[in-house]
């Protein structure tokens, strides 16, 4: 019989970037929080100074941090908040540990759950989050966009909707916004299509996300490309039998308005940030996921294919320079 998640007293965050820090900084006000870091100096700073949250909420919490899971006790819930490209290396460090924990994945794109399953029999929640923040230092994160985390049981694990509701309740009590669902795929695909478009367009053009992404007033307007990519994504989702939760174009219109208020010069999507630092992007998991699904479903997606190839070409160009 599958175990049930009744009460959460200890949460371990894996990956303390902006999203992981937001989870840790809020959850630390109501439960014990530990953080598995990649760098020893990051763990040391967190242990000495705690974690400060500013912006939409204000707070300061004490956490226990280490690069070694053996130092962090036995959590009830583990939140993997790394980028998709770092999920496997992170979960590999947890092999043999935290056997009684549930795991929640909060990545962009599709496919990380199967990576986790390779290293342990943890019950798994899939999650997508729309909240955003800026990590100013190892110990300070600014909460900028207070929007929801959606989560639900991964259909190939023994987590249940009731378990997901326990996690959502905890996040809401901590001052975040969360909603639990029995089937997360409609929400995953809504965000996947949004991300595949906004991230790849920003990576190739170098233009931060703002209202130019929804402008279709002229033949040269960027909004035509954005709309076209999202239309292709909707077609792929339909071919896969997914009825998306929310129209990605409407999400773009809403987000552009919110970002304009909070970040006057536009928000830098994660892929654009990676390109600026010549780091490997998440494009294989995001735009690549749509291209692969389109091929399997027999759907023609020329805009998504072109942007996928251009981002991959950018990545190859850095390798050639080294």
SSE topology sketch:
Layout lengths: L9 E5 L3 H10 L4 E5 L3 H10 L1 E5 L3 E3 L2 E3 L10 E4 L6 H7 L8 E4 L6 H6 L6 E6 L2 E6 L2 E6 L3 E5 L7 H13 L4 E3 L4 H21 L17 H17 L8 H15 L7 H7 L10 H11 L4 H20 L1
Parallel strand pairs: 1-2, 1-6, 2-5, 3-10, 6-7, 7-8, 11-12
Antiparallel strand pairs: 3-4, 8-11, 9-10
Helix pairs in contact: 6-7, 6-8, 6-9, 6-10, 6-11, 7-10, 10-11
Describe what is shown at a glance.
The chain has 322 residues and is α/β, with parallel strands linked by helices. It contains eleven helices and twelve strands.
What characteristics describe this protein?
single chain; 322 residues; alpha/beta; Rossmann fold; N-(1-d-carboxylethyl)-l-norvaline Dehydrogenase, domain 2; 2 domains; eight-stranded mixed beta sheet; four-stranded mixed beta sheet; 11 helices; 12 strands; 17% strand; globular
How would you describe the overall organization of this protein?
The chain is an alpha/beta fold. It folds into 2 domains: 173 residues, Rossmann fold (3-Layer(aba) Sandwich), CATH 3.40.50.720; 136 residues, N-(1-d-carboxylethyl)-l-norvaline Dehydrogenase, domain 2. It contains 11 helices and 12 strands. The protein has an 8-stranded mixed β-sheet, sandwiched between helices. The protein has a 4-stranded mixed β-sheet with strand order 4-3-10-9, with helices on both faces. Helix 6 crosses helix 8 and helix 6 crosses helix 10. The longest helix is centred in the middle third of the chain and has 21 residues. It is globular, with a radius of gyration of 19 Å. The relative contact order is 0.12.
């Amino acid at each position: 019989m599958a175990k049930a998640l009744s009460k959460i007293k200890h949460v371990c965050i894996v990956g303390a970037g902006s999203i992981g820090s937001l989870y840790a900084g809020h959850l630390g006000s109501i439960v014990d929080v530990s953080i598995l870091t990649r760098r020893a100096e990051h763990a040391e700073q967190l242990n000495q100074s705690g974690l400060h949250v500013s912006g939409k909420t204000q707070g300061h919490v004490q956490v226990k941090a280490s690069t070694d899971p053996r130092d962090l006790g036995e959590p009830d819930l583990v939140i993997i908040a790394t980028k998709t490209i770092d999920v496997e290396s992170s979960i590999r460090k947890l092999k043999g540990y935290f056997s009684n924990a549930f795991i929640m994945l909060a990545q962009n794109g599709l496919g990380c759950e199967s990576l986790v399953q390779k290293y342990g029999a943890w019950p798994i929640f899939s999650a997508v989050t729309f909240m955003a923040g800026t990590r100013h230092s190892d110990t300070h994160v600014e909460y900028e966009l207070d929007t929801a985390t959606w989560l639900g049981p991964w259909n190939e694990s023994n987590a249940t909707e009731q378990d997901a509701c326990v996690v959502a309740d905890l996040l809401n009590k901590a001052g975040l916004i969360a909603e639990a669902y029995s089937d997360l795929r409609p929400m995953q695909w809504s965000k996947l299509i949004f991300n595949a478009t906004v991230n790849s367009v920003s990576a190739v053009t170098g233009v931060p996300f703002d209202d130019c992404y929804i402008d279709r007033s002229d033949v040269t307007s960027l909004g035509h490309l954005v709309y076209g990519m999202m239309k292709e994504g909707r077609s792929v989702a339909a071919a896969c039998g997914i009825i998306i939760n929310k129209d990605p174009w409407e999400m773009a219109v809403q987000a552009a308005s919110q970002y304009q208020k909070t970040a006057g010069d536009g928000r830098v999507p994660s892929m654009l940030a990676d390109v600026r630092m010549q780091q490997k992007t998440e494009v294989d998991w995001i735009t690549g996921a749509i291209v692969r699904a389109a091929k399997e479903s027999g759907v023609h997606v020329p805009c998504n294919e072109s942007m996928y190839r251009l981002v991959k070409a950018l990545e190859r160009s850095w390798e050639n320079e080294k």
